[in-house]
Prior knowledge:
Blueprint: H1 4-37, H2 50-71, H3 82-102, H4 108-115, H5 119-130, H6 136-154, H7 168-198, H8 203-225, H9 228-237, H10 239-266, H11 268-289, H12 296-315, H13 326-333
Amino acid sequence: MTDPPLIKNNIWKCVFAVSxxxxxxxxxxxxxxxxxxxxxxxxxxxFKHSLFLVFCNRIMTSAVSAGFLVGSKKTLDPVVPIxxxxxxxxxxxxxxxCQYEALKYVSFPVQTLAKCAKMIPVxxxxxxxxxxxxxxxxxxxAVLVTIGCSVFVLYPAAADISPYNRGRESTVWxxxxxxxxxxxxxxxxxxxxxxxxxxxxxxxxxxxxxTLCSCILSLSGLVLQGHLLLAAEFVSRHNDCLYDIIxxxxxxxxxxxxxxxxxxxxxxxxxxxIMITRQLVSIMLSCLWFAHPxxxxxxxxxxxxxxALYAKSFLRSKPLEPSLPVHEQSExxxxxxxxxxxx
Length: 343
């Protein structure tokens, strides 16, 4: 018979994990859309410097991961050649930049649902890089998700207009950027998995070096494009934008703690279910907060996607690798999530 205090303790742990993930990532999603799609100041100016957001996010994530390594007395030395960290970093920067830029042309609900299709590029990259094989059920779910996402993207409500462009051009650019996001994100996750399997690497070591590389690369990109001073000048004129960016970086970093805690405490299956629910809540909140109307075709597309994802979550029965302790397997499962790019 289960001990009642133990049950109560587990319930509180679950509430803590679910609340932390839902609050931080929902706020993260709302702030993304606010920064990129809502004008600031009396002159209605839009913030256009996506790479500056990447730079700010990575600075905070790098600092926190370094603090964790120092506090836990773990090594700060690189485990793999620096160029491999840089490869993940470049892919991750491109992923996040496409994600932010896409919000100029498509709404957050469209972007969030389109992210659900990331399993397709992950399957492709895993087949090419790691020679993995998937079951027919995995391909069926991937096809259903793709169909649902396609319906959602191709049949927007007429009243949902981008602040940067209007009509079909907006959709074409937005879809192109989301395809770039999915492709780069799939490569990032797969290459991270390959590094974890090939090296004895602690997860925060990878986070620190990849985000440190991202800081250097994104800063270099801002300087070369001449956007660093423009972005700094914009936030100096619009303090509310500065506060939004600081809060965005804070919740992005905080979400990593809750994600790691959830996977280690309850496992990847519970985490996947929470993340699917979070995406659904984010879409509904964005529709209410920013007045995004959904067409009846989009409701059908969303129903197809989330039904397939929940089915995938509950049907998942991946065995643990017997050669690894449970906590190390949990770290591997959370590796791509903890690399400074909350999903």
